[in-house]
Amino acid sequence: MARVLKIFFHDACFDGTTSAALFAAFYRDVIDPSTEIRAVGMIHKDGNPFDGVALDADDHACVDFRFCADPKMRWWFDHHPTAFQPPSLRGEFERIHSPTWFFDPRAPSCAGLIQRALAAGWDWQPPPHLVEAVAWADKIDAAQFKSAEDSVALVTPAQRLAAWLAHGRSPLDTSNYVEWLSRASLAEVAQRAEVAPQLAAVEADRARELDDVKKLGVWHGDVVVFDRFDDVGARSPGFLGYLLFPRCLYAISATRTPASIKITVGVNPWSPAPRRHNIGELCARHGGGGHAVVGGITLRADELARARDTLKLLVKELDDGAATSH
Ligand SMILES: [Mn+2]
Q1: Beta strand 59-63 pairing with 75-78
Q2: Which domains occur in the chain, in start order?
Q3: Within the chain, how many helices (H) and strands (E) appear?
Q4: 253 phi and psi angles, rounded to 5 deg
Q5: Cα(110) to centroid of ligand 1, in Å?
Q6: What distance in angstroms lies between residue 326's CA and the mean position of ligand 1's atoms?
């Protein structure tokens, strides 16, 4: 029977899926070509996201997602400054000092971190189609776009796929996507019969979405809030928020699905004003996590009252009176 590798990855995320595809390609090339690879999308939640997650394969990897100190998680790569929760896990990481665990909070993307680690440690170079995907992960995860317009463009396969991934795909969709991307280019994946109609739908949806987001935004100082708690299944505006409210410094979006509640907080990458807060730390204090400029908090579907309170507290903390008027 073939050995099984499970790759846990940050779901619904261009960097997370690219990281998983990259590691799958490496594993087949270098470790064992006959391994059956199962990609498992992970979402952040309050408490230990690995609770109830079975490490029951022959080998396990975790990419672009929180640290898991279980020695069965043989491979780990992450770049989120809030990777260690509780922070005491950092001590475990240092103490065990596994040569197959990698952490670099300065890396623009986890996929880039993985590419560098595997080149240095295993002399492995990814195929060209994955080099291209990694370059896009760097750009998308670190919001390295000239303008908000560029950031939301749906012209290249990478940006079309990133929008599709953010639009609440099913776990099966993203797991299949990882497998496809491990073997084919972004352009080829975007043309697949399972994907192309959904990409067209994302694009067709865009005009209505812009309209909705414009109506939703509520100012609190230089913070703009998109509260979609009452519209179950509605999406976070993402960078569309910065396109439509270019003068904001911070954007907070509040969304929920039948399965979970999510609050996302971001610093406007195109704001001339400097940020006054570390967003990942702020979110970590409320049970979430993230980077200095973007973070989130995921709660259970039955915690709406707590989510509304959290949203109020976040607004209060970010709208600290330091803003000049917009
Ligand atoms: Mn990432």
Answers
A1: parallel
A2: 4-190 (3.90.1640), 217-318 (3.10.310.40)
A3: 12, 11
A4: -125, 140
A5: 5
A6: 31
CA of 324 to the centre of ligand 1 (A): 32
Cβ proximity of 308 and 295 under 8 Å: no
What is the share, in percent, of the chain residues with pLDDT greater than 90? 85
The 10 Å Cβ neighbour count of residue 212 is 17
3-state secondary structure 23-42: HHHHHHHHHCCCCEEEEEEE
- State in Å: Cα 59 to ligand 1 middle: 22
What's the rounded Cα separation, in Å, for the pair 62 and 93?
14
CB 243 within 8 Å of CB 148: yes
Q: Which residues surround ligand 1, an ion (CB under 5 A)?
A: 15, 64, 110, 141
Indicate the range of 55-69, 112-126, 157-171, 293-307 predicted with least confidence: 157-171
Q: What is the model's pLDDT at position 170?
A: 76
**Bond into 171 cis (ω within 30):** no
Write down how long the chain is. 326
Given a contact cutoff of 8 angstroms between Cβ atoms, the answer to whether 191 and 266 are in contact is no
Those residues whose C-beta lies under 8 Å from the C-beta of residue 117, and which sit 6 or more positions away, are 77, 102
Q: How would residue 286 be classed by pLDDT, with cut points 50, 70 and 90?
A: very high
Dump the DSSP string for 174-187: HHHHHHHHHHS-HH
